[in-house]
Write the structure tokens for this entry.
Amino acid sequence: MILYLSILGYKIYISDSEIKEDVHFCITKEDPSKDDTKIWALKNGSFQIAHNKGCVPEKDLHRIFVVMQTFYFDFLLFWRSNHNNQLNFHK
């Protein structure tokens, strides 16, 4: 896990083992697991939920999305710096 940001008690992170996947971030309150909530970064400058297996409440998820949206380009820069400068977007 490579932690990017903590907000509302949640950790927003990327996994260093998912190098070949499209740009995404995971959200958890606990230690990272395969069942954490997953958020895709889209080419149009927004984010989309892939799944909410981590059961983040809708209210918290909305607040997290607002922060992520506000700092969209910072999130991409963080991804690129940890994935050999590559950006592959989810379709």
Remarks:
- The longest strand covers residues 2-7.
